[in-house]
Design goal:
The protein has a single domain, classed as Alpha-Beta Plaits (2-Layer Sandwich). The protein contains two helices and six strands, in the order ββββαββα. It has helices spanning about 75, 120-125, and strands at about 10-15, 30-35, 45-50, 55-60, 85-90, 95-100. Strand 3 (about 45-50) and strand 4 (about 55-60) form a beta hairpin. The N and C termini lie far apart (about 70 Å). GO terms for molecular function: hydrolase activity, acting on acid anhydrides, in phosphorus-containing anhydrides; nucleic acid binding; zinc ion binding. It comes from Agrilactobacillus composti DSM 18527 = JCM 14202.
């Protein structure tokens, strides 16, 4: 089994994008989470490609028919990864996305969602028509 060295570049092909959002969510430099999909009944070495907020956008290719030459398959890197690690989009073709894998890093997403009061002053200045009358 190939050892993933911290100083070496590791690239993987994203497959299955046609089942999700095609290539639309991907841009050069986009950060994704590579997460082991332990519930995948079709592939026990499945690694899901997750885009924050959007969700699953594909899988790391694991078939000789889908792995682009020069990239690693999911099976070659699976045992060398934590449950989740960072991937960054480095190449996009008309049909494929290639990610650089950072096994020692992961995404940390921090989103603040606050509840605020509506601006009641807005409603005070608007005169509503009497019930039953419509104004256009």
């Amino acid at each position: 089994m190939t050892e993933l060295k911290p100083d070496s570049q590791v690239f993987v092909t994203v497959t299955g994008t046609n089942y999700y959002f095609e290539l639309k969510p991907f841009e050069l430099g986009t950060k994704v989470s590579l997460t082991k999909d332990v519930r995948n009944h079709h592939d026990n070495e499945a690694i899901a490609v997750i885009l924050p907020i959007l969700g699953k956008v594909g899988y790391v290719a694991n078939s000789p028919y889908t792995v682009i030459r020069g990239t690693y398959s999911a099976g070659r890197i699976y045992d060398h990864l934590a449950e989740s690690c960072l991937g960054i989009v480095r190449f996009i073709t008309d049909k494929n996305v290639i990610l650089e894998v950072y096994p020692d890093k992961r995404l940390d997403l921090d989103i603040d969602i606050d509840v605020v009061n509506n601006d009641s002053a807005y409603f005070d200045t608007k005169k509503l028509p009497p019930k039953g009358e419509q104004s256009f």
